[in-house]
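chain below, 238 aa
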Amino acid sequence: MRAATAFHEGLPMYLILFDVDGTLVDSQNTILHGLEVGFAAVGLTMPDRQTALSIVGRSLEEAFLDLVGSAHTDKVPAMAAAYRQSKIARREQGLDLDPLYPGAREAIDRLHRRDELLLGIATGKALRGVRHMLDKHDLHGRFATIQTADTSPSKPHPDMVLQAMAETGVEPGRTLVIGDTGFDMAMAKAAGAQAIGVTWGYHDHSRLVENGADRIIQAFSDLDVALSEILKFDKETI
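prediction:
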């Protein structure tokens, strides 16, 4: 892993933070299975697919609370515990392998090779889930900072971005979040960073725009141009 530093050979660094679920990996089926387990554990009816996926990006307890409402707050801990237990068991059985979206690996490797860029992760997943993703897709060593639900409040709170910037020494104006939900966009804006929304995830175009997306891309092949237009790192000198 490249050392996390705000400068490389006298030039300022840029920090690119990726969301995971709905941005790097297509996890909708495994998330829905976990939610079903959680609802069944407390005898509640699972909401429809669109409603269930609308909470992707939130930390687990907050996601369940969003879905069940204040009337069932007392059931949220048991639902979250059932979800986690199911995830652990399924991973041990080799059942939960969320595929990378087309172009994700190539984009990560391409950006990682650029000396002026640091890559990071900011996700509502637990660190255990991130490590599983890195293991299964052989992505270790690409990310200079990893921020998860274990140590930060749920998105859209800006803590994940603030912690990532603190760890790497990169300023908000040279930090950018890539994500598929309005939670990601709002988190970036609250931290003073830029944001790119992706259309292949779980929130629609309008929700990304409403929450502050600076650009919206249709495929990973569009990412490099969008980054250059927003951050202008090819033109910056000191």
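The chain has a mean pLDDT of 91. The longest strand covers residues 117-122.
thats it, cya
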